[in-house]
């Protein structure tokens, strides 16, 4: 599999080329409590062809059983063992420095409490219990009292570990403050920068790959700054699907550490070969679409996902060669 300017090509469907898909949840498998078109059928077909699935989420408040139940209810049959949460990754990170039985102040939901206990630690609720670490994850019930206890403990020397640093959280009403915003309150009160287990750290991906004993994993996500940045950070190829947060235009303007290896309109991209743009007469050509950067302007010819791929290749190549690219010349693209 080779490609231009960071994009890869595959002559066979991705579900054949890779043995494990590390699938993000919100924006990829579903959106809020609603199904995403083609997600169930595409994942079912990928499984039927031999690809294994692990659903990897930055959500630390829910138990794997709850996540598996929601997916199953959306016609994506899932076993809890096929779910990797940020809570589990957070607990795994704690084991790298703490001995079994160490006290951990948990700020978050039941998923994080369960994961920390399962890792062999003693869960406490007050800084006066002299915890060795603070494990912080999002839960709707987290408020000032819990954040204050975390700040007291960190100021007294406890190791601060966050399940993730997502600043925003998608809800049915729009974007709300995420765990990163709550972690920011503790950081502001203490001046201590926490360690993080969630995406974009590749910790969860590594744990999921090791659990599955996979040899050819593929990350699938909708957010460049978490899902795809984690893929790049871990050295895993990443498929960016345009059903969630980051748009096609975002992909064109992506910094090197957040660029996907593959692009797809939705999860049907798992079942298709992928062409990579090729340079011809100054244009990056993909299928019947083409793009180039000239005098700082992105010029486009064509439509669809192949145009998005060509635009990414042209823009990335120009930026990496220290050429000027005026972002106002990059339009919103549809696949």
Automatic annotation (TrEMBL):
One term of GO molecular function: phosphatase activity
Domain of life: Bacteria
GO cellular component terms, A-Z: cytoplasm
UniProt cross-references to InterPro entries, sorted A to Z: HAD-like_sf, HAD-SF_hydro_IIA, HAD_sf
Pfam families: Hydrolase_6, Hydrolase_like
Protein name, per record: Haloacid Dehalogenase Superfamily Class (Subfamily) IIA
Species assigned in the record: Promicromonospora thailandica
């Amino acid at each position: 599999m080779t490609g231009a300017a960071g994009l890869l090509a595959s002559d066979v469907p991705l579900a054949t080329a890779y043995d494990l898909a590390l699938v993000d949840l919100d924006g990829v498998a579903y959106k809020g409590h609603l199904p995403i078109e083609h997600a169930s059928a595409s994942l079912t077909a990928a499984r039927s062809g031999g690809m294994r699935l692990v659903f990897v989420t930055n959500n630390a408040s829910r138990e794997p059983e709850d996540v598996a139940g929601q997916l199953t209810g959306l016609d994506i049959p899932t076993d809890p063992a096929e779910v990797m949460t940020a809570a589990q990754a957070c607990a795994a990170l704690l084991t790298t420095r703490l001995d079994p039985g160490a006290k951990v102040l948990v700020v978050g939901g039941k998923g994080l409490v369960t994961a920390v206990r399962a890792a062999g630690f003693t869960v406490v609720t007050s800084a006066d219990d002299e915890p060795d670490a603070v494990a912080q994850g999002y839960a709707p019930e987290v408020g000032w009292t819990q954040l204050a206890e975390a700040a007291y403990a960190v100021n007294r020397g406890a190791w601060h570990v966050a399940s993730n640093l997502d600043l925003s959280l998608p809800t049915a009403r729009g974007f709300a403050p995420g765990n990163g915003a709550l972690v920011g309150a503790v950081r502001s009160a203490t001046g201590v920068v926490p360690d993080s287990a969630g995406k974009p750290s590749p910790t969860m991906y590594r744990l999921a790959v090791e659990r599955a004993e996979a040899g050819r994993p593929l990350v699938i996500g909708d957010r460049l700054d978490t899902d795809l940045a984690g893929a790049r950070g871990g050295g895993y190829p990443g498929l960016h699907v345009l059903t969630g947060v980051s748009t096609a235009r975002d992909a064109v303007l992506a910094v090197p550490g957040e660029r996907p290896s593959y692009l797809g309109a939705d999860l049907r991209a798992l079942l298709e070969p992928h062409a990579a743009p090729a340079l011809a007469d100054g244009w990056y050509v993909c299928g019947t679409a083409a793009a180039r950067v000239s005098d700082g302007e992105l010029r486009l010819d064509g439509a669809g996902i192949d145009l998005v791929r060509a635009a990414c290749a042209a823009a990335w190549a120009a930026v990496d060669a220290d050429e000027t690219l005026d972002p106002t010349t990059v339009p919103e693209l549809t696949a």
